[in-house]
């Protein structure tokens, strides 16, 4: 006679909770502890529940018990709030909840956490209408600025961490060639992070697309948190572009295009042209020099100080003498900044 399956043990459940915390899931006032428990388990198991491996009824009941005390202290909707809830679950389980009764300190208070998706949904023009991506990015931008004014560097890091997670989730989506990502919330987070940390986010995206060894989430987040002045663009070319696997890059480039194209069409102009320089870098890695030069020339036309676009042109042979460094050639054509 087979032994009745046991519930998942607490150590594993806490590992699931930590994993969910890193997902930057939204947590809203309407969520019950069971709702959150279901999302934690779904993420950990891939929504596969084999009754022969565990007592899932008891497991969900235990997860609900772990979540409930932290969720009861929530006093407002939290976009990307799973990290804070997970931390509070851990604190409560250790018998060390926040002394002041708050879920987090002043640097990441409820007033500073981004809730733009909630507001953008409420602001849809007519009942049943979905706000456009442009409207959601605009709302996200306003929330980011409000959050940073109140929360400073902690909020900058939170947004970039969330953007990296959202980028990797969208990159992993199964999409046909030419098909765009349509998760407006994730696209908006990425767009805002690109607007305020263009060099660091570009480096992160380049690593995600071009690195032959791949990057785990923590590594990509460290890149995204790099201070703008410290981003080493030359190393992006020497470490990534020059060692890129063409076939792998083509596949990753197509996935990246599905994310970057809707962002370019709906974000601010600076971000749109930043996308252009990234596409130039990817084309260079794939060996398509003519297309790379075209994208880079357009990006330089808007911003002559675009370091990635300049790096692309510096590595394309001059058609007259074959010497790498077409940047000067392209910059002599007198282009003015395009408008979008």
Note down, in words, how this protein is organized.
The model is unreliable at about 95-115 and about 320-340 (pLDDT under 50). The protein has 16 helices and no strands. About 40% of the residues are buried. With about 350 residues, it is an all-alpha fold. The protein has a domain at about 1-105. It starts with 9 loop residues before the first helix and ends in a 9-residue tail after the last helix.
Descriptors:
340 residues; mainly alpha; 61% helix; 0% strand; elongated
Layout of strands and helices, then pairs:
Blueprint: H1 10-21, H2 33-45, H3 56-72, H4 82-93, H5 116-122, H6 133-151, H7 153-172, H8 184-196, H9 198-210, H10 217-224, H11 233-240, H12 246-266, H13 269-286, H14 289-302, H15 307-314, H16 327-331
Helix pairs in contact: 1-2, 1-4, 2-3, 3-4, 5-6, 6-7, 6-8, 7-8, 7-9, 7-10, 7-12, 8-9, 8-12, 9-10, 9-12, 9-13, 12-13, 13-14, 13-15, 14-15
Task: Summarize it.
With 340 residues, the chain is an all-alpha fold.
């Amino acid at each position: 006679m087979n032994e009745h399956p046991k519930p998942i043990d607490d150590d594993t459940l806490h590992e699931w909770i930590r994993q969910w915390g890193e997902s930057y899931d939204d947590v809203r006032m309407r969520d019950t502890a069971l709702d959150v428990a279901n999302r934690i388990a779904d993420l950990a198991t891939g929504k596969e529940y084999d009754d022969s491996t565990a007592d899932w009824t008891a497991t969900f009941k235990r997860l609900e018990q772990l979540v409930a005390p932290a969720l009861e202290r929530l006093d407002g909707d939290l976009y990307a709030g799973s990290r804070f809830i997970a931390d509070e679950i851990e604190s409560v389980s250790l018998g060390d909840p926040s002394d002041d009764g708050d879920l987090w300190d002043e640097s990441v208070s409820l007033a500073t956490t981004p809730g733009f998706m909630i507001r953008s949904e409420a602001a849809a023009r007519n009942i049943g209408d979905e706000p456009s991506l442009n409207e959601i990015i605009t709302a996200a931008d306003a929330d980011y600025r409000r959050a940073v004014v109140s929360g400073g560097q902690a909020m900058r890091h939170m947004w970039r961490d969330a953007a990296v997670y959202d980028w990797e989730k969208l990159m992993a989506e199964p999409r046909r060639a030419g098909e765009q990502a349509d998760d407006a919330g994730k696209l908006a987070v990425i767009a805002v992070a690109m607007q305020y940390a263009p060099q660091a986010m570009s480096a992160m995206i380049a690593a995600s697309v071009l690195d032959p060894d791949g990057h785990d989430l923590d590594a990509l987040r460290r890149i995204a948190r790099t201070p703008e002045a410290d981003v080493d663009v030359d190393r992006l070319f020497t470490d990534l572009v020059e060692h890129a696997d063409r076939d792998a890059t083509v596949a990753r480039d197509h996935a990246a295009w599905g994310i970057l194209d809707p962002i370019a069409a709906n974000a601010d102009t600076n971000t749109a042209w930043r996308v252009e320089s990234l596409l130039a870098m990817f084309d260079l890695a794939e060996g398509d020099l003519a297309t790379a030069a075209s994208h880079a020339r357009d990006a330089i036309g808007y911003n002559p100080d675009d370091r990635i676009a300049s790096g692309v042109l510096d590595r394309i042979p001059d058609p007259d003498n074959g010497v790498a460094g077409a940047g000067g050639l392209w910059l002599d054509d007198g282009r003015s900044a395009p408008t979008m």
